[in-house]
What we know:
The protein has one helix at residues 8-18; strands at 22-25, 30-34, 37-42, 46-49, 56-60, 69-74, 81-88, 91-99, 107-110, 117-120, 123-125, 136-141, 145-149, 152-157, 160-165, 171-173, 184-193, 197-206, 209-218, 232-234, 240-243, 246-247. With 253 residues, the chain is mainly beta. The strands form five sheets. The chain has a seven-stranded antiparallel beta sheet.
Amino acid sequence: MASRYASLTKLANDLLASGPHKQEVTPRRVRTLFNHVFVADTTSANQVWEHPYYPQYYLPTKAIKDDVLEKGKSVDAAGSAFLMTLRVGSRATDRVLMFEKGPLAGLVRLEFGAMDSWFEEDQEIYVHPKDPYKRIDILPSTRTITVKVDGHLLAESSAALFLQETMLPMRYYLPKTSLNWDLITPSATTSRCPYKGEANYYHATVDGKEYKDLFWWYRYPTPESVAIAGKVAPYNEKVEIFIDGVLQRGGST
């Protein structure tokens, strides 16, 4: 995932001026891998919310491996934070900030997507650190889920899993056997979710019109979401979803 902040200078100055939305120390061991080397290893990582949606890891300066950081320009006249370069062997990235003053003093931000891998304890994590205040509930239901687009039936099942993820719409995961396969074709699209894993997609074609990426599914979801393995979820916002015959809000009309 690309950073929300193309300009690290702007990010640093915003944080120096207003502070993060939230900041907490986590007891988890956090390590990051770059060019085959663990460049950071700490049990004192800070989870820093640069925006309201999810945290990033900011690591104590002492947790960074010796001789891999090169100091660059200060982001302000006071020397409050510096643009840095992380260099290991033949590879380098300049997506690094180090704070020397303010609420984040003594912490280094290694951009998540610029690293090769991140680990919490011995579990690799993806996309961004998980929000400790976010959870997923997966509940089996015998209510009938019907999925249509432009009035055409795409799927129907009375053996769905209802997945509720904090602050997101309810998603409905259906057996693949419930799909109308005459209308469904594989998509090359993939995406990653830190809570569920890597998703694949399906298109639907109705009356000669292709509706791209209407369904997604996880072949190998994360352990916390293993119940949805192999099941398909319609994109609520692009289709009509009925539960026991009642059209749900948020679907297409």
